[in-house]
Amino acid sequence: MQIVTTVLPTDPSFRLIGREEMDRHINEARQNALANSKDEFLLSLMRLLALPGNGHTRLIPNGAISVIPLRFATIGTAVRLLDSMSGFSEAIGGELISINSVPVGEIEVAAEEFLAGTRQRKRVIGAILFVWPSALRCLGVSSGGDTIEYRIRNETGQISELLLDTANGVPGSTFYPRNEHGKADASWSPKSFLTIKDFGQRGLLLVLPSFFDPGETALSDAVSEATELVRSRPGISLLIDVRGNTGGDFLRTMPLIDAISEGAKDRRVGLLVDKFTFSAAIVFAALLKHRLGERLALIGEEMGDGLTFFAEGGTIDLLSSGAVVRYSSAFHDWAGGRIDNTTPAEIAERIVPAGTLQLDRIWVANSDDAETLDRFYREFLDSLDT
């Protein structure tokens, strides 16, 4: 098994896990594989890879499983129905209350051992378990019957009861993207790496939805454009939106970080973040916090990871099942500024002790409506000067 020969020896996050505990989970996975129980095999791997609590190391089952055709995501602290193939229009946007009469909170507690990372990361990646029949059986929510009942409550308190047949499943990737972004459309991807809005004397808005650029030029071009604009207006307030930015290469954003921090000494900067902000986007936040101190205001909700984690590494395709394993190879500590022998040199030389990233204002967007967001943006920019 590639996980035993490649992932466990390479990934430093497993160093603190006892051999006996790992062997127990490995043996369970092998038994499920020998029994040709694919879903149970995948669930046992999820539990094994979640042991270190490092969210960068995990099994991604999305492309290997069949799910009930409902798209759930945690918005704020509520699990909401964002999309459906079954025409349940009256329930879209509503809050998931229970599955087969089991309260969502109880299901989330039962699911914790299958999900790696922080509480916020578990909220991001865990929604797929609510529609995976095999997972619901494993969590004690379903006895393996032909139907599953979902109770959804809309904003007026009306309850919808959705009864779905487990035989009418769809590929998991139809509703659950590999990098979960929380948008209603699972296939959503950013149209550009930079959106700029000039609010005049109030300040500038920079939306940076991703730092991952397979083409290797578009992100650099976007950073150059933003850098030039920020340098041309050194005293104006900035609002930077990295909500939904799941990461990429923070090194390519360094020119923009330099331009922001080299501005006027009284420049105020607001950074919008959420639970779908991960990896390199968190490093971006840590570097700005270290350089700007109290001049940086963090607005939104707790991000998807903490400041101490393991990253880099790679992925393995499990050809027999269609699932993907993501594993780590390097230590990062952006809280205390620590490194070890696994930290790449180009990252080690930029590690800083950012401390903690406490929110200055809690805010969760309830709408993607442009007019509504503009109103919030203006309000945030005004608040930076008070």
Mean pLDDT: 94
Describe the strand arrangement of the main beta sheet, using strand numbers: 10-11-12-13-14-19
* CATH homologous group name of the domain at 195-307 and 354-384: 2-enoyl-CoA Hydratase, Chain A, domain 1
Percentage of residues in helical conformation: 25-40%
What does this entry look like structurally?
This protein has 386 residues and is α+β, with helices and mostly antiparallel strands. Among the domains are: 68-183, Roll (Pdz3 Domain), CATH 2.30.42; 195-307 and 354-384, 2-enoyl-CoA Hydratase, Chain A, domain 1 (Alpha-Beta Complex). It has 11 helices and 19 strands. The strands form 6 sheets. It has a 6-stranded mixed β-sheet with strand order 10-11-12-13-14-19, sandwiched between helices. The mean pLDDT is 94.
Key features?
386 residues, Pdz3 Domain, 2-enoyl-CoA Hydratase, Chain A, domain 1, six-stranded mixed sheet, four-stranded antiparallel sheet, 19 strands, globular
Task: Describe the structure in brief.
With 386 residues, the protein is of the alpha+beta class. The protein contains eleven helices and 19 strands. Helix 2 runs antiparallel to helix 3 and helix 8 runs parallel beside helix 9.
